[in-house]
Design a protein that fits this description.
Elements (H helix, E strand, L loop, with lengths): L1 H36 L15 E6 L4 E5 L2 E8 L4 H20 L11 E6 L6 E8 L13 E6 L2 E8 L5 H17 L8 E6 L10 E6 L2
Antiparallel strand pairs: 1-2, 2-7, 3-5, 3-6, 4-5, 4-8, 7-9, 8-9
Length: about 220
């Protein structure tokens, strides 16, 4: 009887151990997938408003999307330092708060946040933008450094990457996208690209994109 109880306890412990190993195997597999590919969120906008587009085509290097007109609030970024980026963000937030006081609610939970880089002679020109959902009521900015813009609908080539967003990672992935577009024989804007981020800086997972418009 005692021997039978011992055997049952061993089987119970063994079963629990197997289940724990299976559970750990699943967790490890998910972690490895996320590290290798980035977390494949089914909706990288997190069920929040974001620009509407139609997927035209995709391969392992980039997607081809057709975007509708996109409304933005935009400000210039003085240089490529974190302090300049924070100052630009502060100006957009000040505009949002001023609109709220005037009775116009500018959503604070839209994606993506966008940094557009235009290259030419000398240092690149940077601007920082927030997406405005269609139909958002607002007035023109009284701050000359903040503009309300409409980005016309266009075909855009998109590279997705999952590392921590930064000016440097944007520059690197823009170069990779340009190389892939060249190999694919695509005509594209040679001077401007946009980095689009869909997660907070301290998020555990990041869905980032580089956008380059078709020529």
């Amino acid at each position: 009887m005692i021997e039978q109880q011992q055997q049952q306890q061993q089987q119970s412990v063994f079963g629990a151990s197997c289940r724990m190993e299976q559970h750990l195997s699943v967790v490890v597999a998910l972690v490895l997938v996320s590290l290798c590919k980035g977390w494949p969120a089914p909706n990288f906008c997190h069920q929040k408003p974001c620009p509407e587009y139609q997927l035209v085509g995709a391969n392992q290097d980039f997607e081809e999307r057709r975007y509708v007109d996109i409304d933005l609030i935009t400000t210039t970024v003085d240089d490529q330092t974190p302090a300049a980026l924070m100052a630009a963000r502060s100006r957009l937030e000040s505009y949002r708060q001023s609109q709220k006081k005037a009775g116009y609610e500018i959503p604070s939970d839209t994606w993506p946040g966008m940094i557009t880089v235009t290259e030419g002679e000398g240092d690149p020109h940077l601007s920082y933008s927030w997406f405005l959902p269609p139909g958002t009521a607002r007035t023109n900015s009284t701050d000359p450094s903040v503009a309300v813009q409409t980005r016309p609908g266009a075909t855009v080539y998109v590279r997705v990457f999952g590392e921590l967003p930064s000016i440097e990672s944007g520059r690197k992935n823009a170069a990779l996208l340009r190389a892939a577009l060249g190999q694919a024989g695509k005509a594209f804007d040679q001077h401007t690209y946009t980095g689009a981020g869909y997660d907070g800086y301290f998020s555990l997972w990041h869905h980032n994109e580089i956008w380059i418009s078709a020529a």
